[in-house]
Every structure is written in C-alpha cells, then in structure tokens.
Design goal:
Blueprint: H1 2-25, H2 32-46, H3 57-84, H4 89-109, H5 116-140, H6 145-182
Length: 183
C-alpha cells in the first residue's frame, strides 16, 4: 500500500510541475490555461479514484470555467482598450499580429535568464508588439501619428492587463487542482 501511495504522490507532484510550466505559457501568449485543462483531464482520467490525490469532474469543470473566463477577459481588455481609444479594425488586427510576433521575440530575447527571463520578456514584448501593431494599423487606416500612438498605448495596456487576468485565472485553476489533490 505504501508503494502505491508513493507512486501516486510522484504522479501528483509531476502533474503539478507540468501545470506550473503550463501556467507560465500564458505569459508567452500561448494557451496555457487550455493546456492545464488537458493535463488535468488526463491526470483525472489516469489517477485511480481510490487514490487520495485523485480529483473528479467538478474540478475539471472549475478549471474549464477559469480557462474560459481568462480567455474572455484577455480578449475583452485588448478590444475595449483599443476601441475606447478610437481604434479601427485594422488597428486591432495588427495589434493581435504584433502581439504574437512580440511574444515569440520576447521568448528569444529572454533566453539568457532561464524560464523567468523568457516569460517576462515575452509578456512585455507582446505588449510592445501590440502597441506597434496597433500604431501601424491605425496609420494604415489613415489616422495621424498622435491618434495612432494613443490607440497603440491603449493596446499595450490592454494586452498587459489581459495577460494579467489570464494568468490570474490560470493561477486560480492551479490552486483549485492542488487543493483538490490534497483534500
């Protein structure tokens, strides 16, 4: 029985490690919360129900809810920020493209400082990419430079806030799973 519990504990700890890594994917602009949901589903399916570290369907629904809320908040903060600043559809689409490019660039720039450096650089450069993308999109739409920069700055703030909301939802999902493993 002791070996059984030790193996299950090892799997639970490994699952938590992978979930923490998945949470970090959010900062890089990747769908980390959805990866967490997939990992939670696989873990719940593979962990025997009689194990003290097993969690059930209710936890999976909670993780799904947090993932969905995080995505909605991330999307809405960027869109609302750009719209309030007078952004156009071109500006919003260019902001999304710039955010993705900036995120990948940030991962590469942050490599000298393992893991944390890449995550922070990806988050900041995705915001900068969103700002520059929105600026270029607004200029392409015919706006003067001052208006385009205002929309770009709103896109930057919206991207950073949205990522913060998404990370917070992912963190709540991670805590929910960790608590369910212990209780």
């Amino acid at each position: 029985m002791s070996d059984y519990l030790n193996i299950n504990l090892l799997w639970a700890l490994l699952c938590l490690l992978v979930l923490i890594i998945s949470l970090g994917l959010n900062a890089a602009g990747a769908p980390g919360n959805w990866v967490m949901l997939i990992i939670a589903w696989i873990y719940s399916w593979m962990m025997p129900p009689e194990s003290p570290y097993h969690f059930g369907f209710v936890v999976l629904i909670l993780v799904l809810a947090f993932a969905a809320i995080g995505e909605i908040l991330e999307f809405l903060t960027g869109v609302i920020g750009a719209k309030k600043a007078g952004g156009s559809k071109k500006g919003m689409w260019c902001s999304v493209i710039g955010s993705i490019v900036g995120s990948f660039g940030g991962v590469m720039v942050g490599i000298p400082v393992p893991i944390i450096g890449s995550l922070i650089a990806a988050l900041l450069l995705s915001g900068v990419g969103a700002m520059l993308g929105a600026y270029l999109g607004e200029r392409w739409d015919g706006k003067v430079s001052d208006e385009a920069w205002r929309v770009g700055l709103a896109s930057f703030v919206g991207r950073i806030l949205g990522s913060g909301f998404k990370l917070s939802c992912g963190f709540l999902a991670l805590v929910s799973m960790a608590v369910a493993m212990v209780i």
